[in-house]
Amino acid sequence: MLLLDLSTLRVATEDFAESKLLGKGGFGMVYKGVLPEGQEIAVKRLCQSSSQGIGELKSELVLVAKLHHKNLVRLIGVCLQEHEKILVYEYMPNKSLDTILFDSERNNELDWGKRFKIINGIARGLQYLHEDSQLKIVHRDLKASNILLDFDYAPKISDFGLAKIFGGDQSKYVTLRIAGTYGYMAPEYAMRGQYSIKSDVFSFGILVLEIVTGRRNSGSYNTEQDVDLLSLVWEHWTRGNVMELIDPSLSDHPPIEQMLKCIHIGLLCVQRKPAARPMMSWVNIMLSSSTVRLPSLSRPAFCAQEVSESENSDSYSATRPEASGLTDNSVVVSCNEASITELLAR
Q1: Distance of CA 285 to CAs 22, 95, 115, Å?
Q2: One cellular component GO annotation, for this chain's record (predicted)?
Q3: Considering 5, 98, 141, 159, which one is annotated as catalytic?
Q4: Global pTM?
């Protein structure tokens, strides 16, 4: 990891010109830049109000810099001069998955071959984070906008701002500061602040269903007019007509068996009980094997009936943080369209 001068990054981004802006969120702004040797970069300039101190940020960066996998966005360098907190990543020319998948004019760029490659790549990247890296990382904010695509549409997991690192014998943590994106959050995290690698598996399941159907999971679990994606897929799955939900842009001779397997795996990953969700290494075996028998399914978490039941109980629901004893100050969430990502000190 390089320590980069602020002057170099100002030149690279034409002094953080608006024309170089790639995106923005709760963390700050991301700009496209070009280093003197010609390398294209993405420059994430954290907002001045970020609660994380320089020392804490350095500690986290040292850890993240140790992660190396083809399906993780590579951290190139950092700049901590003049009260700036700037992270520099490799540039992804096809930007984030959501900008193509949920755009009716662009989603035909993602044929089934590309989509299956994206699903496989995300699964391999997650297995590395959870099981194969020395650090054992839980991402905690996995979603379509945090999956970046390179020139060949290969996926790379990005944004470790919420990532937490587990010790070898610790299976789950409890936090009073829930941060992430509704629609991707596992129920035990949204309701009780419990997170583990199985929370990421839940988010992966949502992503798989979004990729196959081309529909964004609304995360609107309490509105009459919005049916959440899990309820919709489960309803069609139990009726035997789930292929009706396949993205219409994939209608040209789709490999039905492979699509059904992906939907099955997606539903398996969003089971209500974390223990019922597979490890990512098992997901990768299921994706790559044509002979492995997939486990049977139960109704997934956050189906409409389950939510209506929880609304009539004392349990905490996605829209009632006060029921868990959490206050507005300890819950940082967003709807899918407006991502909030915070760098949190460990």
Answers
A1: 36, 28, 18
A2: membrane
A3: 141
A4: 0.82
Look at residues 86, 92, 90 and name the one whose alpha carbon lies nearest to residue 3. Answer: 86
**pLDDT, tens digit (0-9, with 9 covering 90-100), for 101-143:** 999 999 999 999 999 999 999 999 999 999 999 888 888 889 9
Pick the CATH number of 2-90 from 3.90.170.10, 3.60.15.10, 3.40.50.10190, 3.30.200.20: 3.30.200.20
In tens, the pLDDT along 50-97 reads 665 666 666 667 767 788 999 999 889 889 888 888 989 999 999 999
Residues marked as binding? 44
Terminal alpha carbon distance of the chain: 21
Catalytic residue list contains 141: yes
- What is the dotted CATH code of the domain comprising 97-334? 1.10.510.10
* CATH 1.10.510.10 in the chain, residue ranges: 97-334
Can you say which residues are annotated as belonging to the binding site for ATP?
44
Query: How many residues are recorded in the chain?
Result: 346
Distance CA 272, CA 274 (A): 6
Token pair, residue 142, equals 């996995």
